[in-house]
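Supplementary material to the annual report.
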Amino acid sequence: MSATIINGKAIAAELRARVAAQVPAFRDATGRAPGLAVVLVGEDAASAVYVRNKGRATREAGMESIEHRLPDTTTTAELLDLVGRLNADPAVDGILVQLPLPAAVDTQAVIEAIDPDKDVDGFHPVNAGRLATGLDGLVPCTPLGCILLLRTIHPHLAGLEAVVVGRSNIVGKPMAQLLLRESCTVTVVHSRTRDAFAHIRQADIVVAAVGIPGFVPAAAIKPGATVIDVGINRTDTGLVGDVDFAAASEVAGAITPVPGGVGPMTIACLLRNTLVAAARREGVSLDLATIDGAAA
Amino acid sequence: MSATIINGKAIAAELRARVAAQVPAFRDATGRAPGLAVVLVGEDAASAVYVRNKGRATREAGMESIEHRLPDTTTTAELLDLVGRLNADPAVDGILVQLPLPAAVDTQAVIEAIDPDKDVDGFHPVNAGRLATGLDGLVPCTPLGCILLLRTIHPHLAGLEAVVVGRSNIVGKPMAQLLLRESCTVTVVHSRTRDAFAHIRQADIVVAAVGIPGFVPAAAIKPGATVIDVGINRTDTGLVGDVDFAAASEVAGAITPVPGGVGPMTIACLLRNTLVAAARREGVSLDLATIDGAAA
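Predicted assembly:
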């Protein structure tokens, strides 16, 4: 058997197009484009690439990109001051502070300083709490992207057995909340789990987010399962995921490649979150089900 | 085999005594006792009993109990006004609004109006978010009580297989977060789960919180497992839990009775949370591990 390869690049392009299609109506209603402010501190090469890509995608969607580049000597106080100004700026709907920040900066203080209603990364504790209690909020981009990929295979997720591998604040834990919201039965396995593979072997849906190249072997995957690989690990042989892709794609029913799977969805969901934040701030109504591409 | 019966009443009394033992030092440091404000709206008989019991337990622990009883005609605006005054009152460390509120009141607005640092029920989205992201906050009393009961049987919870039955905001979801924080492998099963018993049968720890009398049969329990029964269901034959206690206690290794298991822990944890909130507000240090009775 050979798995369906979930084409994250194409699915992300469709999502970006659906987001972009909403911008003219927003502009008509408000007289301005949605605005995303991205803050980059220091000279980390990978971060600089991410920020450049985010800026380009923002402009391509018809939104305004505001970029702030600060030296790696920036203090926590200076960053908090900038965040405060962006919170107060009516033209800014979304604020993204590119992580990681230099070690001398109090990252948690910066995250908590962002207005939760402009927190398009969804990392503020208020948004984590809204997600945990079933309220509307802004959801972290990567796990949201995973849900949208899953829906292309499973229009209805309710009742499916899902295993999340990893328990980070950025992926694993919000992923588990989102799957639970979709009425999956959810198990979170992690470094202290006795037999992670025994759990994975029972799962209809596996989301791997541990950051260990090839951690999930084909033998741990239930035939026909859907496998979402969040890992992006740099190795001597190039970028690889947390799943042994070549072997797993002979067992799974559907699987995301690395690269070209979850990665492109993260930026697309950032644009989607910026549009959502802008619409909520301005009281403009959105048809989220259509934007997210829910099954009819 | 006959299970160890987990004596929640005795364990709660010990917790209350450890909390009470900290009050004199707090009083010496601050010149006042920790204060818990309880707000009761309307004439619900069960709520009145809860509020009376909370007031008595608060005073017995040497803390100040402030009770506000309002008619069932109270509006959301009036309640928000009261909460605002309690937030501003320096003698109030904890605020508990007894639920359920009358149908005409916007319960969510009231919950979100409470200062998160005085939210001893732990229901505010900020506290849910702190729990979800591993920050210090105030944790809902019932799941916290379950963790403290579990620790009397398992001084170290890491690596144990835990199944939470139910996904409410008040018990199931925060319970799953707390078990994950303790490094258990956590599965949440619920009404849409295909085969909840298959999951429960694998679990070292079962926390049942569905509100269905006897939902978990003995046949679904792994021999030797620890079973925490959060259910308190009124039936013709009296109060019963979500677990078939008589039969399950022949299979489980340890089990909580209903009543006398989780119930008494909830009020004890409310006092514990009030002390924690008071100490944080006043900058008084506490040895939480000792108060919570952690294994040496």
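Chain B has a mean pLDDT of 97.
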